[in-house]
Specification:
The protein is an alpha+beta fold and about 200 residues long. It folds into 3 domains: about 45 residues, Helicase, Ruva Protein, domain 3; about 90 residues, Tetrahydropterin Synthase, Chain A (2-Layer Sandwich), CATH 3.30.479.20; about 40 residues, no CATH class. Helices cover about 55% and strands about 15% of the residues. Strand 1 and strand 2 form a beta hairpin. The longest helix is centred in the last third of the chain and has 19 residues. The radius of gyration is 20 Å and the shape is globular. The protein starts with 5 loop residues before the first helix and ends with a strand.
């Protein structure tokens, strides 16, 4: 049985941003294995997110980020369930992190479901044209097209992109961690990215 000391708990807390008691429980459960404890806490965030998926998010924050030089900016609406959580430093910092992410990664949509169907069909037809002379069977071609479409989603859909603050997570997983931390449903309602000359 490993000894769980304050240093270990603090390290796990820095990685996940979760409370001391949650971190201690996860370390006790995994006998001091930091990686397994991180996995447990991530799964807990996903489980809380699933339980709260039908909750209404009528509160939140509108966050504005202007990049140094004033040539680019982002407006983001991040929703949660209560104004209490909306006004916490954690949610405000998370809104800032998401706005920075949007400024850097230039997503066009929030989720794959929002991607314009004409745009998607156009992209698929280009991929199919590129593969036309490959001689591969139709079934294999369809799998390749699906794989390339998923890669496209990870480039143009906010929730599917690797999170700039931690590229081991997608933005969706980072939101799930925040849900686990706050105990409330959190969602990106909308965003706009502005850039001079774009």
């Amino acid at each position: 049985m490993a000894t769980i000391d304050k240093k270990m708990i603090q390290k796990l807390r820095e990685i996940t941003g979760l409370g001391m008691m949650d971190c201690k429980k996860a370390l006790v459960e995994t006998d001091g294995d930091l990686e397994k404890a991180v996995d447990i806490l991530r799964r807990k965030g996903a489980a809380v997110a699933a339980k709260r998926s039908d909750k209404e998010t009528a509160e939140g924050v509108v966050h504005a980020y202007i990049h140094p030089g004033s040539r680019m900016g982002v407006l983001l609406e991040l929703n949660c369930e209560t104004d209490f959580v909306a006004n916490t430093a954690d949610v405000k910092q998370f809104a800032q992190d998401l706005a920075l992410h949007i400024a850097a990664m230039k997503p066009l949509y929030i989720t794959p479901e929002e991607v314009d169907s004409k745009f998607l069909e156009h992209e698929k037809s280009i991929i199919k044209e590129q593969l036309a002379d490959s001689g591969k069977p139709e079934q294999i071609l369809n799998k390749i097209v699906d794989g390339k479409v998923n890669k496209l989603y990870s480039e143009i859909c906010l929730l599917e992109q690797p999170f700039v603050k931690n590229d081991q997570l997608t933005v969706k997983q980072a939101i799930e961690e925040m849900i686990g931390k706050t105990g409330e449903k959190i969602k990106v309602k909308k965003f706009s990215r502005f850039e001079i000359g774009a």
